[in-house]
Design a protein that fits this description.
Layout: H1 8-36, H2 40-57, H3 63-69, H4 80-106, H5 112-132, H6 144-162, H7 174-189, H8 208-221, H9 225-250, H10 253-264, H11 267-272, H12 281-299, H13 303-315, H14 325-338, H15 344-361, H16 363-371, H17 373-376, H18 378-383, H19 395-407, H20 429-444, H21 449-466, H22 483-505, H23 514-538, H24 540-543, H25 548-560, E1 564-568, H26 576-581, E2 606-612, H27 616-625, E3 630-635, E4 642-649, H28 651-655, E5 660-666, E6 669-670, E7 674-676, E8 692-696, E9 707-714, E10 717-721, E11 724-729, E12 736-743
Parallel strand pairs: 1-2
Antiparallel strand pairs: 2-4, 3-4, 5-6, 5-7, 5-8, 9-12, 10-11
Helix pairs in contact: 1-2, 1-20, 1-22, 2-20, 4-5, 4-15, 4-16, 5-13, 6-9, 6-10, 7-8, 8-9, 9-10, 9-12, 10-22, 12-13, 12-14, 13-15, 14-21, 19-21, 20-21, 20-22, 21-22
Length: 744
């Protein structure tokens, strides 16, 4: 190790390399600014220049890489008694897992299979604990300053994930509401299925782990928006310490802390740590899988195989894209075998232990795949880019999607307002520049398993987005498993720079780095804060993407309470968001916009009318009918864009527009207008015959068809409709003549 050792020859060489590496970073930052200015061709050219400079600056074998990776430790022999205990624990877990599969088929919905499932997980922990008792320590423990730095990083990560959680995101999106309602129904009905297949009438949310986590948190914190959001915050926060520990397997402590800070400040990760999607568990459990696996492969700790398999099995109970993770884990094992860091015998033993643990932990999803293969693969089939085509037939779409996903980090990011500020690169400019230099570092160190592992991890987990429908590309949600790999790759140039600094100046000169680190850290944290909480939160596409009109509708109904007749725009009706926010509300059939006016019903307190922005003509017509109605415009606070029109009418407002105005004239004695509910007038026994009667107003025809008009009178008479004669009576004054006609 070359810690703090500086010789005249190495000092000159490393100082020149340090200068070139800094120059490469500067050119990469300029390239990113060109992309931001709308000149992607210039940016690409400068990025290629930066990569060439960086590769030229690197020595063939830099000490920091060997130090970070280190030699693999041999697996210490286990005492026979401990080995037998571990095997017994694993065998018990496998037997309990088989029992769980059988119980799910016999007692679906009962809590009994889940209790046995928890016992099987306990057996896996027992096996890991037994192995851990006979293993060496996990290596160098973090020093106090590392704990302090990590605490500050976690604090910033909590800020990015908790600040303004009650208002950003601005609404409860469809999928979030479905997750919450499925979870609440399971608790209310005491029905605990092995998977959720969308029985509520919405497309299925198959990952049982997240659903039951939501159920637990809503049961403890109440069925409210904050409790629902916290179901994403907690796994999002848990990813940070796991990520730091994994980074320590690749990088020195200061660089690992820098990588953790980049992830803590990441808009990409913070965004999905605030939305109640099960996808947030993918980076957390995937990072844990690799962390425990590397403990086993590099330190010879077989307990890591069991814990890695446990995390793998749990992850398969979450988001669909997690099904790609076994490829990453198998690749990591193969790289260590091919690099002769692990013997083939040890790899086979470890893979067997990992498989037993994973299969045991994944029994609910295995049951799902066996008993309902149609729904198990439904979402993948529905969103597949390939569909019924062969890979060769879909090659152009695959290539186009690949380019878009590789470019989303630095050029054009996800365009979905729920996932990102539409079109903005997923990475902060500093992180984006470091990421591309990190890719160059991996290509330069192609003999290192670390490089293959990180690049393979990146590409495999990007496949979840690449092979999904083209019109959504790039897709940062389905590619979320690549997120930790991106930030590890971005940290590699920092490891280079740190190693060169130590070889050039020694570790004791680190105070000279305080000023540039403060500037870089301030730019990273402040830039992500401003982009995330200012630009993205205020952008209409992001603000409106979370079922915001439906959420505002639900808030209004909840605030006004019962006693109102509610009229809901058909484009906003039957939404799970409203059902989650106002569980007591029995939503009526949506109105037909062309038939809404005049309103025909009112509750004891009046009527609430909700019109979406798509029916702007109707929204403008209602105030003309009801000038005294209260109008509430729900706007984006930033640009004033109205997304929902709300009208509050009292019973008297509605009564004024109902019925017809009748005016009658008797010989020499006209009368004023009288409101009558029907087009009908019957003379009393002693009432004189009027010379004319006229009605003015709107007649409601409930259905399309023929309607009958009739008139009975002595003498001559006419019935006109909109100026046209439809009935005519001609007789002597002494006779009463009746006539009937039908009008469509």
């Amino acid at each position: 190790m070359h810690r703090g050792v500086v010789t005249p020859s190495t000092q000159g060489r490393d100082s020149r390399g340090l200068g070139l590496a800094l120059l490469a970073l500067s050119v990469a930052l300029i390239a990113q600014s060109e992309v931001g200015a709308g000149r992607p061709a210039n940016g690409l050219a400068l990025y290629l220049t930066a990569g060439a400079l960086y590769l030229y600056s690197r020595p063939r074998a830099f000490p920091e890489e060997a130090e970070a990776a280190g030699p693999s430790a041999s697996t210490p022999p286990l005492p026979r008694e401990a080995r037998d205990q571990a095997v017994l624990w694993l065998l018990s877990a496998a037997i309990l897992g088989a029992a769980v599969l059988r119980l799910f088929s016999l007692r679906t919905g009962s809590p009994v299979p889940w209790l046995v499932y928890l016992l099987s997980l306990g057996a896996l922990f027992g096996a890991a604990a037994t192995l851990r008792l006979h293993e060496s320590s996990l290596g160098e423990k973090p020093r106090p300053w590392e704990w302090a730095a990590l605490a500050l990083i976690l604090a910033w990560g909590a800020f990015m994930r908790l600040y303004r959680l009650d208002s950003f995101p601005s609404g409860i999106y469809y999928d979030e509401a479905v997750n919450a309602m499925e979870a609440m129904r399971a608790v209310a009905d005491r029905y605990f299925p092995p998977y959720f297949a969308g029985d509520l009438g919405f497309y299925g949310r198959f990952g049982a782990l997240y659903e039951y986590f939501v159920a637990a948190l809503l049961s403890l914190g109440g069925t409210n928006e904050i409790a629902l959001r916290l179901t994403a915050v907690f796994p999002g926060m848990l990813a940070l310490p796991f990520f730091y520990l994994l980074a320590r397997r690749f990088l020195a402590s200061p660089v690992a802390l820098a990588a953790a800070l980049m992830l803590a400040a990441s808009r990409w990760h913070a965004n999905f740590s605030r939305i109640a999607f099960d996808a947030v568990m993918v980076p957390t459990l995937l990072t844990a899988c690799l962390l425990f696996l590397l403990w086993a492969l590099r330190r010879g700790r077989r307990s890591g195989y069991v814990l890695s398999g446990l995390c793998l099995g749990l992850g398969l109970l979450t988001y669909t894209a997690f099904r790609l993770v076994p490829v990453v884990l198998l690749g990591a094992i193969a790289l260590h075998v091919l690099g002769r860091r692990v013997s083939l015998r040890e790899a086979i033993i470890g893979l067997a232990m990992l498989t037993v643990a994973a299969v045991t932990a994944a029994t609910p999803v295995i049951y799902h795949a066996r008993t309902d293969p149609e729904s198990f693969g439904e979402r993948t089939r529905r969103l597949s880019l390939v569909g019924d085509r062969t890979l060769w037939e879909a090659r152009e779409d695959i290539l186009r999607n690949t380019v878009r996903h590789l470019g989303m980090f630095n050029f054009q990011g996800d365009r979905n307002g729920r996932h990102n500020l539409p079109g903005l690169p997923m990475l902060h400019p500093l992180v984006g520049a470091l990421f591309l230099l990190g890719v160059a570092a991996c290509l330069a160190a192609y003999r290192e398993p670390r490089s293959w592992l990180l690049l393979g991890w990146l590409l495999v987990m990007l496949a979840g987005g690449i092979f999904s429908v083209a019109f959504e590309a790039p897709q940062s949600l389905r590619s979320i498993g690549a997120l930790p790999a991106v930030y590890l790759i971005a940290a590699l140039p920092l490891a280079d720079l740190w190693g060169r600094w130590r070889c050039t100046f020694g570790e004791r000169r680190w105070p000279l780095l305080i000023a540039p680190l403060v500037v870089a850290g301030g730019w990273l944290l402040g830039g992500n804060y401003l982009t995330f909480f200012m630009r993205q939160a205020r952008d209409f596409a992001s603000w409106n993407a979370f079922s915001t009109p439906e959420t505002l509708l639900g808030y209004a109904i909840r605030d006004y309470g019962p006693g109102w007749e509610v009229y809901v725009d058909p484009l906003l009706s039957r939404q799970p968001t409203v059902r989650f926010l106002v569980p007591w509300f029995e939503e009526p059939d949506p109105f037909v916009p062309s038939e809404l006016l005049p309103l025909r019903g009112t509750g004891p307190r009046g009527a609430l009318v909700f019109v979406g922005e798509q029916h702007l003509a109707l929204a403008n017509l209602i105030p003309r009918w009801y000038p005294d109605a209260e109008t509430v415009l729900h706007r984006n606070p930033s640009d004033g864009h109205v997304t929902l029109f709300q009208y509050v009418l009292g019973p008297e407002d509605i009564e004024r527009t109902q019925g017809l105005e009748m005016e009658g004239t008797w010989p020499g004695e006209p009368i004023g207008a009288v409101v009558t509910p029907t087009l009908e007038y019957v003379l009393g026994p002693e009432e004189p015959l009027p010379s004319s009667l006229s009605w003015q107003g709107v007649l409601l025809a409930p259905t399309d068809g023929l309607y009958r008009f009739s008139m009975t009178a002595p003498g001559e008479g006419q019935l006109t409709l909109d100026g046209g004669i439809i009935l005519s009576l001609q007789s002597s004054a002494a006779e009463a003549v009746a006539a009937t006609t039908e009008v469509r």
